[in-house]
Amino acid sequence: MWSPKPDHPLRRLFAGLTEHTFMTTLGVADPKLTDYLSELLSRFIAMDAIFRLRDTEGKTVEEVAGMVLEAEAMPPEGRTHREVHRHIGDFTLFWTGVYPETLKRLRSAFSRDCFIDYCEQGKRSYYIASQFDEEPFTEEASVLRRLSEGFEMVAYGLNQVRREWESSRLQGGGIQPIL
Fold it and tell me: Has residue 177 been placed in a domain?
């Protein structure tokens, strides 16, 4: 899975957009949070990062309901359990914040996700992941806790980040949508 380094141009672009938007639109000056979000946006450029979870048979898990089932089948301690819940939080935040118009399709009547509230599940998953606060996760655990507590505000902020990059593209800034 591709994860850009902090000095990668795409990561720097998302860092600038995220920091500017969160500070000017929301009044949130939280470098650790904006760093986490810019890394999330950069990582989720690749579809294999968005749909990285696999079930026990190796098939891609594309529904939050399936991700939760996989997480619940794991022993509650350990890095893998934490990473799966963190990914569920990231997945739900990404779709809720960046592409909320896609939620209708993701939660269609033909999907098990029609019964899932992405905001509530994202909050729950970030909270569970934040409980792993020993080294080396201490710093990230506090960010995950803030994501759990402020999920809706962060989703709104990410939607504003999307508006900024789309606005810049329309004004000739060369920024392209990520999907």
Answer: no
Q: What is the pLDDT of residues 30-74, one digit of tens each?
A: 999 999 999 999 999 988 899 899 988 889 999 999 999 999 888
Q: Give the side-chain half-sphere CA count within 13 A for 79.
A: 4
Query: Has residue 178 been placed in a domain?
Result: no
Note whether residue 176 is domain-resident.
no
Residue range of the domain that includes 130: 9-170
| Rg (alpha carbons) of the chain, rounded to whole number | 16
51 neighbors 61 (Cβ within 8 angstroms): yes
Cβ 118 vs Cβ 92: under 8 Å: yes
98 Cβ neighbours under 8 A, 6+ residues apart: 41, 158, 159, 161, 162, 178
Amino acid at 53: L
Tens of pLDDT, residue by residue over 122-165, are: 999 999 999 987 777 778 999 999 999 999 999 999 999 999 98
Q: According to DSSP H, which parts of the chain are helical? A: 9-24, 31-43, 47-50, 64-73, 79-97, 103-106, 118-130, 138-149, 151-170
Domain count, the chain: 1
Which residues lie across from 54 on neighbouring strands?
Answer: 60
